[in-house]
Amino acid sequence: MNVVCIGSGNVATHMAHALKKSGANLTQIWSRSLDNAAILGNELEAKSISTFQEIDRSADLYVIAVKDDAIAEVAVALKGVEGLVVHTSGATDISILSSFKNYGVLYPLQTFSKKKQLDFANVPLCIESLDESVLDKLRSVALGLTPMVYEVDSEKRKILHLAAVFGCNFVNHMYVLSNELVKHHGLDFEMLKPLIMETAVKVQTELPINVQTGPAVRNDEKTILKHLELLDQMPDLARIYQTLSKSIKKTHS
Amino acid sequence: MNVVCIGSGNVATHMAHALKKSGANLTQIWSRSLDNAAILGNELEAKSISTFQEIDRSADLYVIAVKDDAIAEVAVALKGVEGLVVHTSGATDISILSSFKNYGVLYPLQTFSKKKQLDFANVPLCIESLDESVLDKLRSVALGLTPMVYEVDSEKRKILHLAAVFGCNFVNHMYVLSNELVKHHGLDFEMLKPLIMETAVKVQTELPINVQTGPAVRNDEKTILKHLELLDQMPDLARIYQTLSKSIKKTHS
What we know:
By secondary structure, the first copy, chain A, is of the alpha/beta class.
């Protein structure tokens, strides 16, 4: 299977490596920046290109892993190819690719950083196609990368993408704020790492609502007041503390 | 070393088990409810009691692991004992125990649920005492439970306790909200679990601020607007989405 990867960001990098590992032949890496294309291209022994004209029109699979805003432009550039064209965006409807003969979505529900290695077996892949035979093809490609393959339509995929903002992006921001707080007082973030791990480990087997701890769920107003006093000089953190404590109380009332 | 455990909640349960495993002799478990004392007492082959009068006055160590509000009352009841008296509270000053001859703090910076087993080697313990020889004793007890022992004074311990609200309690609430969202749309929370794990794993080796992802840090207003539309029927989630997206933008601006 000859694959062209359009994009060189976090998703493109991890997806292209996983495809190669599964036995696919990565022929080209396109990026607007030839330098970025070259970095990924060298890693994968694929040709790096930076113009749409150079894209091989006879590949079996085109993986569009660019910013959401750029997908439409790439679709115009690829117009007429017969291979399977997929995008990897959580927030973008499948219909953006409807001008192609064979098209679908391959959305990885995971957080990627270029620096951080990741076993693709831990990446759930959401697949979508309106055509049964294309869906079979997509499922087989996806199962080559991970055992966790889910068939999800565009509306549900958008919900998952939003849920990931809460379960990942906002969670990481909480880590940022806790680090800010300990750093401000000369303490080491290292001390919080086991707690952070255990909090995530717990909800692998328990429903999060059943393992909520802390002053808000106990309605422990004395501790909440003490905490707000400690945040006296950090009004942004105090505001978030109040908003989230209120939300916890409401959820558990 | 004879140990009396005052309390039968999450912290008392995990702490008492860890102490027994480290070779201590758990002689009594006190709880206001004899039933609760009996559950933990049976697990540890310790006597379960529910009145202060029954407490053995000649133990080597008294571990007070009750609600913050109840520590003062327990301290009055134990008045005059010569053994080492410690509380396990993050938010309570060491001075609440200053009437004792030997006293200190043994605060576990971890989230505990009775149902969920936990290797105590993953629990950082914060110790405090104003007396060097008591501190040595405490350090030796703590190192019998975990390699992660930190000397932390009351002011700094309160900061850690507050940081744990952000890094654990608020994080778990984000999991609750993401579960609420997927459930509302007939999707399975199972799909989010690998993402939740990876988000916590990432910050074990990277600074959280360096691995922030999502629409807010990219200033991707289009996606943020789409997400707020999806939260049209869930105004509480929409408000939290806006507050935290604003905070992420401010942090990274």
